[in-house]
Specification:
Helices cover about 50% and strands about 10% of the residues. Helix 1 crosses helix 7 and helix 9 crosses helix 11. It is α/β, with parallel strands linked by helices. A hairpin with a 3-residue loop joins strand 8 and strand 9. The chain has 12 helices and 10 strands.
Length: about 350
């Protein structure tokens, strides 16, 4: 008996491998977020095929951002297509409040909030997104253009705590031996991206092979959005430098993710070892700068400094209190957070 078409098989294999890797318990609920585009539609089809054969339950959620005319109709059309795959599906409306972070970040924040709420309501163990290898390459390219560090260049992680921080310390996958699901520390669902090794062309072909008609989001062609422009640049790079550009960028992300995870773990160990701030300069001086800057970022975020405004220059200025202190007074960080040094101790505090 012939197997499925190659593109369909690729999505199913990727989904099966990802789900098996996190040690889901029998009868765990897998929730797939579907926008109606080719990537998430191919993912939903793969989940509908794989989950029941592996003994897991599956459902879908369609988030309506309400940002375009007719978005409600698009959401319900997508829900009907997903329902036809055999998945129970909910349509959830979210409100996208404009902030200084920009429309892309605002929509993402609202979408993830809706996914968290839906996953909690349904008791989902994992929530899956349809990001592909091409999306990962675009993410790395944007990080390069911004001059970002290793964590940003590591791209999107294959899994993380939904609503939590990136990095290994945010999750604790456990095997089925203890009859537990792969829930992150804190009991929330795990967010997964099983198609990061699958190309966008493969998801488009998988939908065609299955007779599914994806929705084409007009925002994906709007040059006002940074990611759209990055996608166009990536196409030019591919045409000029060869088809290996996307694979090269995603391979870079995989390599840097291992490095960034190791540094995050070192910073976590240092944080526990140092105890409560203020911290002694002698102990801080013994740590690599890459670990110290992670400590400063963690303290600043915890004190109320917004991550969107906290730059590397801020972190290096705080680190200069350890390596280049000449009696200078307190530093002012975003969010009315201050950092300073008193004698042989460095401190960082939020607004009084």
């Amino acid at each position: 008996m012939p197997g499925p078409p190659a593109a369909v098989a690729s999505t199913r294999v990727a989904v099966r491998r990802w789900l098996r890797s996190v040690g889901l318990a029998p009868d765990a609920l897998v929730l797939v977020a579907c926008s109606g585009g080719a990537d998430s539609l191919a993912l939903a089809a793969a989940i509908a095929h794989v989950a029941p054969r592996e003994g897991w339950r599956a459902a879908a959620v369609v988030v309506d951002h309400g940002l375009q005319d007719g978005s409600r109709q698009v959401a319900h059309r997508t829900a009907a297509v997903v329902s036809g795959l055999g998945l129970p599906v909910q349509v959830v409306r979210c409100d996208v409040g404009p902030t200084a972070a920009g429309p892309e970040a605002d929509a993402r924040r609202a979408r993830y909030g809706a996914l968290v709420a839906t996953a909690q309501d349904l008791g989902a163990d994992v929530v899956l997104l349809g990001h592909t290898r091409d999306d990962q390459a675009e993410q790395v390219l944007l990080g390069l253009l911004r001059g970002s560090g290793a964590r940003s260049l590591a791209g999107m992680p294959p899994r993380r705590a939904l609503g939590g921080v990136e990095g290994n310390q945010a999750r604790r996958p456990v095997g089925a031996k203890g009859n537990q699901t792969a829930r992150p520390v804190g009991g929330g669902p795990l967010l997964g991206r099983p198609l990061l090794g699958v190309s966008r062309a493969q998801t488009v072909q998988a939908c065609a092979d299955l007779g599914l008609e994806p929705w084409s989001d007009p925002h994906n062609e709007d040059p006002r959005y940074t990611r759209v422009r990055a996608r166009r640049v990536l196409a030019v790079l591919g045409a000029e430098l060869g088809r290996g550009v996307v694979r090269g960028l995603t391979r870079t992300a995989d390599l840097l993710r291992d490095d960034a995870d190791a540094l995050d773990e070192a910073a976590e160990a240092a944080y526990r070892g140092l105890g409560e701030p203020p911290w002694p300069v002698a102990e801080l001086s013994a740590l690599p700068r890459a670990v110290r800057t992670r400590l400063w970022r963690r303290l600043a975020l915890g004190a109320g400094s917004p991550g969107t405004d906290l730059t590397r220059e801020h972190l290096l200025a705080v680190d200069d209190l350890v390596t280049g202190w000449r009696g200078q007074g307190p530093l002012h960080l975003p969010g009315r957070v201050r950092a300073g040094r008193s004698g042989d101790r460095v401190w960082l505090r939020g607004p009084a």
